[in-house]
Amino acid sequence: MGKNNGKRKINYKQVYGGTDPQDIKRCKYSGNSVDPTDKTQGFLMSYRRKCLKQCHREAFSIAKFFSNQVYPDLIDENGDRVVKSAPVVEENVEIDIEKQLLVESEANKEDRNDRVFHIYETGVSQSLFMDLRHEKIKAKEILNYMWGTILANKVADNFRIPSHLERLLPIQKVCVATKEIMIEAIKDVIAKEMPADVKEGLKMLSYYHVMTRARFHSSLDSQEVKTIVIGIVKEVRPEMNLDWKKTDDVIFVEVLKKNCYIGIFKDWLPRQKYNWQEFHKRNTERAEEAAKDTEAKEDCSEIIKDEKSYDNCDEDEEEIVKLKVDLSEEIIKSPEQLESENLS
């Protein structure tokens, strides 16, 4: 067996989507998602049970489409790096071969074959991590733009809303899930993503919300991770206050087996907990309820109109009845009464 086959077996792992033996995808091993140069960022995603393959398609579709929308100069419509075309050389100009080879070799380092998006297993079912390998692209900016477009109802008509991918969260750093390494990583992310709000030389008070989880870790639980995060914020940003009711700024830390995923994002509740599928479902339900209300109001207005027309009909009928009575009275008068009326 060759070296390549051996490496592929080490670097990749079979991920099972459920009881169906055909619902299998080959994902990269979670241990390789931690970049030693400390540049790992991307999206932590959760999906419906038995929907692994569909989740892959929807995750790549969202990441590629909105990355191209935010960074059109860096990412093309297929989600690949934009390759800069080589400069056109005029015919009579002398070519420096060594310089030309150097330019081509540099361009080949970031060609179309160097994929931007890579999916890793996390060791936990219904949860995957998508690594974003581009120094100039930020996962947080992509999701901010995406949700701004969703809330403004400006998503392209030809873009298919996900029905299997449940949640997509921006992750700024991935590290090994040991307490010492996590503390340094969380400090670094808070310092970069939550700078002090300074106005006229004074640090303004701000609020934050903590969201932590720990699954399948031998020594850490969710409460311990939460205590670590709150202690770090008190040390790094003492002017910030913890408020469990406000979710405008959320510090998210999730431990999945051996890895820790750290992210900071905004507007947890307005963005429907970053669940596009649920957001679309509720919007559809609201639209249907609004349509039913308008239909009911139209029905009520028609009933009122009908009642008014019935009332008018009743009045007309009463007048007709009165006329008939008067006529009948005239008819039944005696000859003596008629003679007296004629004489008068």
From TrEMBL:
InterPro entries: THUMP_dom, THUMPD1-like. GO terms for molecular function: RNA binding. Signal peptide: none annotated. It comes from the Eukaryota. Residues 185-264 form the THUMP domain. One of its GO terms (biological process) is tRNA modification. PANTHER family: THUMP DOMAIN CONTAINING PROTEIN 1-RELATED, THUMP DOMAIN-CONTAINING PROTEIN 1. This is THUMP domain-containing protein.
